[in-house]
Amino acid sequence: MMKKFILFFVLVSSLLLATQFSNAEEFESPVEAPEIHKMGGEGSLRIEECPKACAYRCSATSHKKPCLFFCNKCCRKCLCVPSGTYGHKEECPCYNNWTTKEGGPKCP
């Protein structure tokens, strides 16, 4: 049981790190950010807007499934997703400050 937990933790941590350090904003033809990203700020989204905001946030990563899972979880709690596909977490303090038990970032 403990072995499975450690394997799961290593896998999730690796995926989150890969998401954090991917060249997410280096596209040849960048996609225009949806209108909901232009509002910004904590609590600026409704729960039903989270999937669209997270689809854009995770559009540049090669690890879409875990990115979408954690982004939607964070969005439902914070009602905010930072603008862009990477960084800008200071726009959503709740999203930025929610960490795992080990102290790493929970939200992509």
From TrEMBL:
- Entry's Gene Ontology BP terms: gibberellic acid mediated signaling pathway
- What Pfam families does the record point to? GASA
Signal peptide (from-to): 1-24
Which keywords belong to this entry? Gibberellin signaling pathway, Signal
Which domain of life, per UniProt? Eukaryota
Q: Which InterPro entries match?
A: GASA
**What family is reported?**
Belongs to the GASA family.
Q: What is the name attached to this protein's record?
A: Uncharacterized protein
**Species assigned in the record:** Capsella rubella
